[in-house]
Amino acid sequence: MRDLVMTALDAAASAGSTYADARAVLTTEERISVRTGRVEGIEHSESLGIGIRVIADGAWGFASTSALTPDAIRAAARQAVAIARASALTAAAPVRLAPLGVFDDTWHGPCRIDPFAVPLEEKLALLLAADEGLRSHEAVTVSSASLDFVRVEKVFGSSEGSMIEQSYVESSAGLVAYGMADGEVLPRSYPNSHGGQASQGGWEAILALDLLGHAPRVAEEAAALVSALPCPTTTTTVVLDGSQVALQVHESVGHPTELDRVLGDEAAYAGTSFVQLGDLGSLRYGSPHVSVVADATVPGSIGSFGYDDEGVPAQRADIVREGVLAGFQSSRESASAIGRASNGCARADGWNRIPLVRMTTLSLEPGTWSFDDLIADTDDGIYMETNNSWSIDDRRLNFQFACEIGWEIKGGKLGRMIKSPNYTGITPRFWGSCDAVCSAERWHVWGLPNCGKGEPMQVAHVAHGAAPARFRDIQVGVGR
Predict the structure, then answer these.
(1) Cα–Cα distances in Å, from 316 out to 14, 39, 301, 342, 361?
(2) Which pLDDT belongs to residue 480?
(3) Does the N terminus or the C terminus of the chain have fewer Cβ atoms within 10 A?
(4) Each residue of 384-398: pLDDT tens digit?
(5) 362 in Cβ contact with 250 (< 8 Å)
(6) pLDDT band at 352, cuts 50/70/90?
(7) What's the rounded Cα separation, in Å, for the pair 338 and 280?
(8) In a shared domain, residues 364 and 442
(9) Are residues 380 and 449 in the same domain?
């Protein structure tokens, strides 16, 4: 793969590029799913190719190919340069990149047990047994369970002299039991909704989730939701579990602080941002309890790596510090626009896509509260777990989230179950109402492998560390 990259870089230089980088990427994926006692699908795929990005006449050009012969790669490099020169005819200003050092390095993510080497029969046996456990209650007649594995091997090289090899494995699993009655379908998921939990690691990450051990509890809660109280429509205190806080961070902190959105480059597809460049260092994003960091060095996170897809080293950067906007997530180009160095947030969805500004492991820093003390300190409110749906405007300002399950908090104790609780808010006001965050004991990194952005659309694997947190004076109601 190094030879492929060098061939691309040499051809781009010969064609007249002033800068070039190339990524050769091999991606292997496997997905296994069962539904209500039957195998639903077994999928296996591989993708291998090279993407070549250049600057010529001050503009970007990009081309890719899966035909990995020297002639095909040279042709793709020439095409990238031709596209750049055509783009330069209408470019408003020449591309400028923030300075970067030269790196020759190798990085591997954690993986003790190769999941692709685990027999298919063993994987199916686990899923079918967990799926059966989800239907241990008569009120649950529909259930699902899934496993997903991804292995990525890639080589990045640039005309500036960097040559970087990286490889990692991601493993994910999820369970869903559906309680059904009177026309309602009420999901209860584990370890999280929308596909479960994804981590960097191998089969050991799946075993650590203990799907079999949790399936009966998930079934009981799904069944109980059928007769649970609807969420009252009121303004009250809300305590969110860590997984829901993670999604809240993703939608209302992560996306609006992507620097390309702030600069207006993402308006066509995913919207812009309510945040402006002049807000840096002054915008009151939340209360002093709210500190958010982008950290691509967190072990075991699917938002971690050694280097991003521009060859920038993984790093930790403040985004919100004690409630004040402290930074943006950036690429080399966007960082140059504000006179800063890139903090390593440029990534691409495979070899045939150009790098975009993407979240890494964007986390709400833990506080000091134990969960029990936080509940005991809450006289009246609702505790909500596990996202069910969400909606947020294209500036990431006004939002509405619904969760799968909730419990009343009365007199500092968890009480009756609530089904489909919903809450709404406005981003700075919502984060400004946060008055407590649980400690590192309850802090967990939640993988989110389905973040969409760009045209053509790219799916990024990102993650968010979070612990349960409390928010005051929140409008709640019934989620649908």
Answers:
(1) 37, 42, 13, 12, 9
(2) 58
(3) C
(4) 999 999 999 999 999
(5) yes
(6) very high
(7) 11
(8) yes
(9) yes
Domain holding 342, by residue range, is 230-478
- What is the identity of the amino acid at 315? Q
Query: Any idea what the CATH number is for the domain that residue 44 is in?
Result: 3.30.2290.10
Q: How far apart are CA 358 and CA 305, in angstroms?
A: 13
pLDDT of residue 479: 65
Q: With both helix axes pointing from N to C terminus, report the angle between 70-88 and 2-15 in degrees, rounded to the nearest 10.
A: 40
From the number of C-beta atoms within 10 Å of its C-beta (0-12, 13-18, 19+), residue 99 rates as exposed
Distance CA 136, CA 128 (A): 13
Per the CB < 8 A criterion, the answer to whether 439 and 366 are in contact is yes
Average pLDDT score, the chain: 96
Q: Are residues 126 and 203 in the same domain?
A: yes
Cβ-Cβ contacts under 8 Å for 260 (sequence gap 6 or more): 266, 331, 334, 356, 357
Q: Identify the pLDDT of residue 443.
A: 98
- 405, 188 Cβ separation under 8 angstroms: yes
**Residue 475 C-alpha from the chain's centroid:** 27
CB 464 within 8 A of CB 362: yes
381: Cα within 13 Å, side-chain hemisphere:
21
> Are 264 and 348 part of one and the same domain?
yes
